[in-house]
Amino acid sequence: MIRLEGRGASYGEIWYDEEPPARGVDILLYRQRATPVANAQVTATTLLMTDLSVDADAIVAPFDNTCRYHIRRADKKDGLTFEWVAQPESRLDELRDFYRAFAREKAVWDIDMPWLAAACRADQLALTIASHEGEPLVWHAHVIYGATAGMQYSCSCFRERDNDYRARIARANRWLHWRDMLLFKSRGCTRYDWGGVFSDESTPERAGINNFKRSFGPTPLATYDCTLPVTLRGRVWLSLRDAWRKRRASEAPQRMAAAA
Known about the structure:
The chain is an alpha+beta fold. It folds into two domains: 2-45 and 225-259, no CATH class; 48-219, 3-Layer(aba) Sandwich (Aminopeptidase), CATH 3.40.630. It is built from seven helices and ten strands. The protein has a ten-stranded mixed sheet with strand order 1-2-3-10-4-9-8-7-6-5. Strand 1 and strand 2 form a beta hairpin. It is globular.
């Protein structure tokens, strides 16, 4: 379990088919659950999953032609090196700095350092890096539980670079996913979780992310994220939090109208 301290309650994050502890936190957060949890707040999700229980040729078989070409070229011509970070906690600051440069380029949320530190303490974080001549090009961060490795962060920095550099980054990202799959397979994992997909593909960014994941031919899988308070403190805190969120949502149109 990944233990997180919130503002008003403690959370325990339970991944895949992990069983919760008897006590110790106020709220349980079930991630990517195969079935809904009774009496919990439930959000249905759709994941993309690659089966790692088959041999390497069978894993590659669903990859589209572009994906296979990028991986082959990266492997043979780009001079990339693969690194699995055996002690991820020692490299979190390095990942943070790299990700923040990526986040500025893409205008996305900052990396969640408390979560990463908590995942390290639970021994459930895996970091991998694709580098060229000693320069990191792509970082991946996965959450691990049982036989599943789940993608949490993927970052690269390539804007304001020439076309050749950008193309190498694109190949390195696909190549790193492939090397990740081989690594996790060798360590006993049978599933590679790509995370969710955007149901709304109206923006090029969202459509591009979905298409990138689909290029590896993963299988859609229905799962559930569930939030369950297990103490009085947890129930009170969730009620207050939900009331605050509802109020913020109702005030948003008023704020937009006033700004206009």
